[in-house]
Specification:
heterotrimer; A alpha+beta (about 160); B alpha/beta (about 700); C alpha/beta (about 425); B: about 700 residues; Dimethylsulfoxide Reductase, domain 2; six-stranded mixed sheet; about 15% strand; disordered C terminus; C: about 425 residues; alpha/beta; Rossmann fold; Ubiquitin-like (UB roll); de novo design (two linked rop proteins); 3 domains; five-stranded mixed sheet; four-stranded parallel sheet; binds flavin mononucleotide; binds iron/sulfur cluster; binds FE2/S2 (inorganic) cluster
Chain lengths: ~160, ~700, ~425
């Protein structure tokens, strides 16, 4: 059995009551993503725990984990840098921005830097098309990002630690 | 009668029941609409898109596997557009398929190969790199080769819906979607292999069959599985007198697609090196020495004649695995040839009381088919999924297809709980009270099949039948017995009637002169009281009893003989010899030869001749020959008239999905599964616990409602 | 505090749904109430359910999620009298490339959408709503949770709303990264805790949707338009647009324009005028090459096809779609091979894998385009791209397959030159 922070436990308790009677399975996806944020990745222990809480088999959770692209079986960096290269971003330098990020962080798609601080992902459209190119670091959006601006962002985060 | 509609398919005027799926209507009329994901009886997927057809007045191609027929529909299944679409689908499918047909197990009987041949293109325009994943072993019997998989989801559905286990799922998405086992990298399941057989391609392969042969090198012999009382038909693939595989490839018989692990894999005891292959006589030093068959027959005939002449005491123990013909012949031999009433077999259900209680009731014997069609099924004191996998499967299918009401009154959680409208947990002995608590619900059912285990015997059994009678609805029964011909052994009269001795009495007797054991192991956990008894054993392997014997005869197994067997529901089915094991003889031939040596006239000992006699003389066995001869299951009639109670114990074998007495001990596959981490019950009794995932909790009244 | 908007508004907009964008504390219930908030709900509770639905029909509002299905008609399909509970599901998955409007509607004016949902609840006798928000919009989930809490606190959600005896509970639900979960039935599976695999239709969600109960599923913007429709009347809303294409909608313009952004205009607004005057024209005086009118699923338009009014029917007439309102503008320097490749990479990544043609087709197309882009193109590839796309079109389980096929077919068809140029360049490189 796993326990989470009091805040998360509270969230989960509320979550499990928000679906109709007997439909706890509905909490699987949100529970996984919130738990991942706290635990760092989707471990098999976490899968079993979510299965237990949502009254499904671990396989049913496992299937879900493989499907959603934001769920990771391996830990990402403390700062997960997601650069969009989809069409709107592509047209205004998204690809160059992504390549710049690779160089800056010294890693590629879905890789984690050696110090575990940063990870990088080339992502699909994330709903920032009119303010492209866009980057999302963890859950924070950054718009009209230029290579220089990205450097500043990353350097700022590095310094903050 | 459902409403009929008129439609045309390819210009052919067709009448069909409204709402039937187009793909079925077409097939019934000889028009093949190809499909991978569509599988009769399983939920619809509409995923493979092979069945797209043209329906006039609809702009897009329509999905034949999900489209209900309607009046006036005009369908084209072979138009240019349809053909082009199919060809396109196959081309898409083959892009990531490894095309390793020359070495693939499925080559020659692969649906993808056949479809490509029939509808596809000889050449692919795909020149890119294929997605590759290494082959994985998920259990001793299940291997998975992902690149061959076409994602038709048949395996996932058969496991989930058909078997009720749900051990397979799908992970990832898009082109890297993959079938995955429930324990991440291995399977924890019934190991039934249904997923392997239902796979249209060679993605799921069997641990025992893979890379062993080409399908066309085998002959296929349809016979009956010898492991439990359910009597599933299994088709044995045979090459050079070796059974290569078991499956039910033509979905014939009472089990359709179903087979459990034993039916599908546990034929390998046949070729176990410890099979007895020569008659053996204990020599002066007390050691077994091979002797010739003729010496063996002469020795036995001599002993039998002498003991009979001096009115000595015979004990005859028959088998619940041998054929009806053999059982019939054995009791005739005992009664007429040896003049003894001391004949019995290991009884696993109280059939005597059962038939007595049913006396005078017509149509009270449920067939395996009835479990699929009854409005309600009540399971009392039995774990069907463990001990009667086919019956469990039937009830589950009935629930899925007809919304049948399933009830379970058991001491522990059972798989039926997942479908049950009411599950009642009782302490051992409390079964009847549990049944009584369901009275009002059961009374409201249209009809009912009651299936009960050996905890219901004697008076309890009478009470259960009286309970059924009092419901005021049609009720049928299945009295569970364990082995492949337990039912036949009873029906053929391997029972101590008219004052004969039961097994226990024979073993206890101090003055037994001969103990003749045909395919049984009474001394497994018991001692023989008489020190002077000459013990003769016919069996496949050295058993505890054989170890006590003076003379041991190597017998042929069920897969090595012809004849008939009667399943737990009283349905007669035909066996067909698949292989021959050197040195062995069938029990019938052994008995016939002894009779001949003794100059007894017990009739011709050919299976067909004996069966003809059975049909004439055994009550209820005047069954339809065409049904039996064409591989069908012919129901027997219940006995009418009083059946006296019998002495001796009734005890079920307590086998599990992975065991069936000594035969299973000699099956490498079963042993491998028992030792692997994945068998759902690890070959052991399932744990009886309210915390098990199948039990939704124990309520104060002991009733779990869902 | 007045929040700085993501982009400056244009004086040419007709701001109905975005009327409160830019107001101080626009996201608060207090602001909302001070600016017409809940007037429509108060009006709706005096109306018969059929009247509400009739009003929505009159408005000629069409779904803003992509397919443009008439909203009033959809509402009328939900069996109000069903004994089963009825659910309202709000599609805030917003994943169609080029689209970023639902974000603003929730960020700046969450209560407008909530009011629209409540009105739907009144019309359909539904008492529970689930707001399915894509996982990447975590800040918006938190934001909506706050707005919902605020509404509960002031009696605009929960039991006996405003003393009407009407109960309604609204919950947020997070996705976790899957475009396919925007497809309505895949969304429902996802909401039920499963892989986002689309469902067979029929039954339609209106009859058997979430947890097999009747379910109304609409896009964020669709719900956000409801208060204005009820408040000012369906006819007034309809009058803003063109026949059968009622009202205004938020268009997200991106790509090669001087003022990319989200702008609200009436349906039927001329596309070229929109690009030139509202979006500020193309930077550097370059020429227009192509426009994706409503998100990456829509067939692409060549510059000479762009002189049209932007409404569902006009775009359908020239073989494209208004989709989700994600307009991507491309100037003459744009390399269509790269565009086609990037679009196909997206669909191959997002295909759920359920059906053969989409699963295998998208990946095959992606691989061909990738090879082509990397200089390994062959002459016959161009025809193959079109043919394979056509083998998917209309034959997949859900519309994602079409969404992948349509832009490809239109690109190879309309911009075959770009592919030829690449081949010529490749040949030259080999020659050198
Ligand atoms: C592949 C696919 C993705 C979709 N994604 C979205 C989406 O992100 N948001 C959305 O509102 N509708 C999306 N849709 C459309 C929905 O299926 C549905 O039509 C819509 O949400 C209904 O709401 P509306 O009638 O208000 O437009 C998508 C459809 C498809 C086929
Ligand atoms: S078109 Fe097929 S594979 Fe693609 S997303 Fe839809 S169902 Fe899934
Ligand atoms: S059989 Fe119809 S889609 Fe597969």
């Amino acid at each position: 059995m796993m326990t989470f922070s009091p805040q998360l436990e509270q969230k989960f308790a509320k979550m499990l009551t928000s679906y109709p009677e007997g439909k706890k399975r509905s909490a699987v996806v949100p529970m996984l993503i919130y738990a991942q944020d706290e635990v760092g990745s989707i471990t098999s222990e976490l899968i079993d725990e979510v299965a237990r809480r949502c009254e499904v088999t671990p396989l049913q959770v496992d299937e879900v984990v493989g499907y959603y692209s934001m769920l990771h079986r391996n830990p990402m960096g403390k700062y997960h840098v997601q650069v969009c290269t989809n069409i709107s971003c592509l047209l205004v330098g998204g690809m160059e921005l992504y390549e710049h990020a690779c160089k800056k962080l010294g890693i590629g798609h879905k890789q984690v830097a050696a110090d575990g601080q940063f990870s990088l992902e080339e992502v699909e459209c994330m709903g920032a098309c009119s303010w492209a190119p866009a980057v999302e670091i963890n859950y924070d959006f950054h718009h009209h990002v230029t290579p220089e601006k990205l450097d500043q962002l990353i350097d700022g985060l590095r310094k903050a630690q | 009668m459902a409403e009929l509609v008129n439609l045309t398919i390819n210009g052919q005027a067709i009448q069909a029941e409204k709402g039937t799926l187009l793909i079925e209507v077409a097939r019934q009329n000889g028009i093949e609409i190809p499909a991978f994901c569509y599988y009769p009886g399983l939920t619809l997927q509409a995923a493979c898109r092979m069945c797209l057809v043209e329906v006039e007045k609809t702009p897009k191609l329509q999905v034949g596997c999900t489209l209900p027929v309607a009046d006036g529909m005009v369908v084209h299944t072979e138009s240019d557009t349809v053909r082009q679409s199919r060809k396109g689908m196959i081309e898409f499918l083959l892009t990531n398929h490894p095309l390793d047909c020359p070495v693939c197990d499925k080559g020659g009987e692969c649906e993808l190969q056949d479809m490509t041949f029939r509808y596809g293109a000889g050449e692919s325009r795909f020149t890119e790199r294929k997605v590759h994943v290494d082959e994985q072993q998920w259990s001793p019997v299940v291997y998975f080769d992902a690149p061959r998989c076409i994602l038709c989801y048949r395996c996932v559905r058969v496991c989930n819906e058909g078997i009720g286990v749900g051990a397979l799922g799908v992970s990832n998405r898009g082109v890297i979607s993959e079938i995955v086992p429930n324990r991440h990298d291995y399977l924890e399941c019934d190991e039934c292999g249904a997923c392997i057989d239902i796979c249209p391609v060679g993605a799921l392969t069997s641990g025992s069959y893979r890379y062993q042969t080409r399908p066309w090198e085998m002959t296929h012999v349809g016979t009956i599985c010898t492991h439990c009382g359910d009597g599933c038909r299994t088709t044995l693939g045979v090459r050079d007198d070796k059974i290569m595989r078991g499956n039910n490839r033509d979905s014939s018989g009472i089990n359709g697609d179903f087979l459990c692990i034993k039916g599908r894999y546990a034929f390998d005891f046949v070729e176990h090196p410890e099979r007895l292959q020569s008659p053996m006589l204990r020599n002066a030093a007390g050691e077994f020495e091979p002797i010739s068959w003729s010496t063996a027959f002469a020795t036995i005939a001599e002993t039998f004649t002498a003991v009979k002449a001096r009115r000595g005491k015979f004990g005859v123990v028959g088998s619940n695995h041998t054929t009806n013909e053999e059982n019939y012949f054995l009791q005739k031999f005992a009664r007429q040839g040896l003049g003894t009433k001391n004949i019995d077999h290991h009884r696993t259900g109280d059939l005597a009381t059962f038939f007595d209680a049913l006396s005078g009731k017509n149509a009270a014997l449920a067939t395996a088919g009835d479990l699929y069609t009854a409005k309600a099924v009540l399971v009392v004191g039995a774990d069907l999924a463990q001990q009667h996998p086919l019956l469990s499967y039937q009830a589950r299918a009935n629930f899925r297809h007809h919304n049948a009401h399933i009830y379970a009154v058991t001491t522990g959680p059972v798989r039926e709980d997942n479908q049950a409208i009411a599950s009642v947990r009782v302490a051992a002995g409390g079964e009847l009270a549990g049944v009584e608590s369901l009275r009002d619900k059961l009374k409201a059912e249209g009809d009912l099949v009651i299936v009960f285990g050996d905890s219901i015997q004697g008076d309890g059994l009478r009470k259960l039948v009286a309970f059924g009678d009092s419901l005021g609805i049609p009720v049928k029964y299945v009295c569970l017995v364990d082995y492949s011909n337990s039912r036949g052994a009873f029906d053929m009269g391997l029972i101590p009637r008219d004052g004969g001795m039961s097994i226990e009495q024979m073993l206890a007797a101090k003055d037994l002169d001969v103990l003749w054991v045909v395919g049984a192991n009474p001394l497994k956990n018991a001692a023989l009281g008489s020190t002077n008894a000459f013990v003769i054993v016919q069996d496949l392997f050295m058993t505890e009893t054989a170890n006590h014997a003076h003379l041991v005869l190597p017998a042929a197994s069920v897969y090595e003989k012809n004849g008939t067997v009667t399943n737990v529901c009283g349905e007669v089915q035909k066996l067909k010899q698949a292989v021959k094991v050197m040195g062995t003889k069938t029990d019938l031939e052994i008995m016939g030869s002894i009779a001949k040596e003794m100059n007894l006239n017990l009739g011709i000992w050919l299976p067909d001749k004996v069966f003809a006699e059975i049909r004439k003389t055994v009550h209820g066995y005047d069954v339809s020959l065409p049904v039996v001869d064409t591989g069908g299951a012919a129901p027997t009639m219940p006995l009418n008239g009083r059946v006296p109670a019998l002495p001796g114990a009734i005890q079920s074998a307590g086998d599990t999905l992975f065991t069936s007495g000594s035969m299973s001990r000699y099956s490498k596959i079963l042993n491998a599964v028992i030792e692997s981490p994945g068998g759902l019950y690890g070959g052991k009794e399932p744990e009886v616990s309210a915390q098990s995932p199948t039990a939704s909790g124990q309520m104060p009244g002991g009733t779990v409602q869902s | 505090m007045a929040k700085k908007l993501y982009n400056d508004p244009s004086p040419l907009e007709t701001r109905i749904l975005s009327a409160r964008f830019g107001l101080e504390n626009s996201e608060s219930l207090t602001t909302y109430l001070a600016h017409d908030g809940f007037k429509a709900f108060r009006k709706a509770r005096e109306m018969k359910p059929e009247q509400i639905i009739e009003e929505v029909k009159t408005s000629a509002l069409r779904g803003r999620g992509g397919a443009g299905f008439p909203t009033g008609l959809k509402w009328s399909f939900v069996p109000r009298s069903s004994p089963k509970p009825k659910y309202i599901v709000i599609n805030a998955d917003e994943s169609e490339p080029g689209t970023c409007k639902d974000r603003l509607l929730m960020e700046y004016d969450p209560h407008q959408m909530i009011e629209g949902i409540l009105i739907a609840g009144l019309a359909l006798d539904a008492h529970k709503g689930y707001l399915y928000i894509r996982g990447e919009y975590r800040y918006l989930i938190d934001h909506m949770d706050r707005a919902i809490a605020e509404a509960y606190a002031q009696g605009y959600l929960g039991k006996n709303i405003l003393g009407t005896g009407f109960d309604f509970d609204l919950y947020t639900h997070s996705g976790a990264g899957a475009y396919e979960c925007g497809e309505e039935t895949a969304l429902l599976d996802s909401l039920e805790g499963k892989r986002g695999i689309p469902r067979m239709k029929p039954p339609f969600p209106a009859v058997a949707g979430a947890w097999a109960s009747p379910t109304l599923l609409n896009n964020v913007e669709t719900f956000s338009a409801i208060p204005a429709i009820i408040r000012d009347g369906g006819a007034a809303f309809a009058a803003l647009g063109t026949p059968k294409n009622g009202g205004t909608r938020l268009l997200c313009v991106s790509g090669h324009v001087n003022k990319p952004g989200v702008y609200e205009v009436p349906l039927g607004y001329p596309m070229l005028k929109f690009i030139e005057e509202i979006a500020g024209g193309i930077p550097g005086g370059k020429k227009l090459k192509a426009v994706i009118p409503g998100g990456s699923s829509c067939p692409i338009l060549k510059a000479d096809e762009c002189d049209i009014p932007m409404d569902y029917d006009s775009l359908a007439k020239i073989g494209s779609m208004l989709g989700s309102g994600g307009m991507v503008v491309m100037d003459e320097t744009t390399d269509m091979v790269k565009v086609a490749l990037r679009i196909m990479r997206f669909y191959a990544h997002e295909s759920c894998g359920w059906c053969i043609p989409c699963r295998e087709g998208t990946t095959w197309l992606r691989k061909i385009l990738q090879r082509f882009d990397e200089g390994g193109g062959r002459h016959e590839d161009v025809a193959l791209l079109g043919e394979l796309s056509k083998n998917m079109l209309g034959r997949t389980f859900c519309a994602l397959g079409d969404a992948a096929a349509m832009p490809t077919i239109s690109i190879v068809d309309k911009f075959a030159d770009d592919f030829e140029k690449r081949l010529a360049r490749d040949r030259q490189m080999v020659a050198v």
